[in-house]
Amino acid sequence: MSIDGFRDRTAVSGVGWTPLTKRSGETALTLGTTAALAAIADAGLEPADIDGLVTFYWGTRDTPAPGEMVASLGLTSCHMSFCDSSGGAWACSALAAAAMAVHSGVCRNVLVYRAANSRSEPLNPATADLWPSGQRQWSEPFGATHAATLYGPSVSAYMAHYGIGNADFAALAVQQRANASLNAKALMKKPITAQDHQDSPWIIEPFRLLDCSAFNDGAMAVVVSSARDVRRRGDSTVTIRAVEGGSLGTPVTARTSRNRWELNAAHAAPALYYRAGMTVEDIDIAQIYDPFTGMALLHIEQFGLTEAGGAARSIGDGELSLDGRLPVNTHGGHLSEGNVAGLGHVIEAVQQLRAGGVRDDNCDGDHDYDRTRCRQVRDPEVALVVGESGDSSLLLTRVS
Predict the structure, then answer these.
(1) 307-366 pLDDT tens trace
(2) DSSP 262
(3) Rounded distance, CA 233 to CA 376, Å?
């Protein structure tokens, strides 16, 4: 399959979600089915039209298995299904797998979904693997048992090199909360200030509470179809221009780097742009994986959206705001919208690119770009979506 042969041949035909809450009161299967049915309807399809499934797996599966979704949706055929284990790189990797299944002719419409009661029914530590193996044997016995401990050293090294302090992270947290206040499905909408950020307690240095992603219940789903089929239905078309990567297997590492803060992003970004036949100057909006503020800054810089060491300053200057030169995380990201393992970033990119724009802001009628109620960006055509560490990424394009 040539690079040119893949470009814009597949499209995101439908998106759907449930409310993001602290306690859903529903099973994960009910959440997943609800989001899936919404995405299928949004695509103008029936459940029987779905013939492929991709979902999430990280350590222990806490989302409905493909077989459960087949039964719940009443699918009549399923030619491909699997659980992608790429962690925070999952969402872009899952879209890539779905697109390749459609482009190859194995499937016509692939449902990508993630559903979990991560807040109200967290995984039981008593059932976890108490004997770490693989890469975990080099981290967990030494206290690196959660994401903040894994990412903290790399972010700290970056901060020391560029003379950045925790206070410099505040602008991103404040900006994303402001964006989330315009997002009906966001978990956290109450505006915050830089002082609120600095007054929030330390979780583990260099991250305060307001540097960290949300932890919530909920589900999201996306349908991937051929771009030709979507055009035949007369829908607005958001095509998958290029994809890059799955996971290289480590949460943060400089595989061939000269420093402690260089992620796979630094190597993946040029490959993604080459596959798309684009440069960073072609990007209109970016949805950047944000497990923590500091990691989001690394992603922004290493995908070339700002100069190295300059992301915090660019955000503070408004360059990455809704009306800036390159709006970032227009939905509020994991910091404020909620965490569905990156699928919210994909859905926001699709909504922003579609004719008519986002449908879950506070506008009454057409988008008027009044930032007290509207988060729609003015006429975006190309969206970048970045998974964790740049281990996977997408470029989506609006094709008329």
Answers:
(1) 999 999 999 999 999 999 999 999 999 999 999 999 999 999 999 999 999 999 999 889
(2) -
(3) 25
What distance in Å separates the CA atoms of residue 68 and residue 194, rounded to the nearest whole number? 45
Please report the DSSP string for 315-360 in residue order. Answer: HHTTTTSTTSSS-B-TT-HHHHT--STTHHHHHHHHHHHSTT--SS
Which DSSP symbol is given to 86? -
Q: Cα(131)–Cα(116) distance, rounded to whole angstroms?
A: 25
Contact (Cβ atoms closer than 8 angstroms) between residue 396 and residue 242: no
- Evaluate the CA torsion angle 162, 342, 86, 79 in order and state its sign: negative
Measured CA angle at 330 (ends 38, 347), to 5 deg? 25
The CA distance from 114 to 95, in Å, is 12
Kindly state the tokens that stand for 195: 């002082």
pLDDT in tens, 233-269: 876 799 999 999 766 655 555 445 567 888 888 889 9
Residue pLDDT, tens place only, 114-134: 999 988 887 665 555 556 666
Dihedral angle, C-alpha 35, 38, 44, 46, nearest 10 °? 70
The 3 state secondary structure assigned to 115-128 is EEECCCCCCCHHHC
Under the banding of pLDDT at 50, 70 and 90, the label for residue 136 is low
Taking the mean position of all CA atoms in its chain, how far away is CA 351? Answer: 13
- Say if residues 248 and 265 touch (Cβ distance below 8 Å): no
Q: What is the DSSP string of 42-63?
A: HTT--GGG--EEEEE-BSB--S
Measured CA angle at 138 (ends 300, 262), to 5 deg: 20
Alpha-carbon distance of 129 to 156, in angstroms, equals 29
Please state, in angstroms and rounded to a whole number, the distance separating the CA atoms of residues 116 and 220: 10
pLDDT digits over 22-78, tens only?
A: 999 999 999 999 999 999 999 999 999 999 999 988 767 789 999 999 999 999 999
Examine residue 191 and say whether the peptide bond preceding it is cis (omega within 30 degrees of 0): no
Measured from the Cβ of residue 36, the count of other Cβ atoms closer than 10 Å reads: 28
Q: What pLDDT, on a 0 to 100 scale, did the predictor assign at position 254?
A: 47
Give the H/E segment covering residue 237: strand 237-244
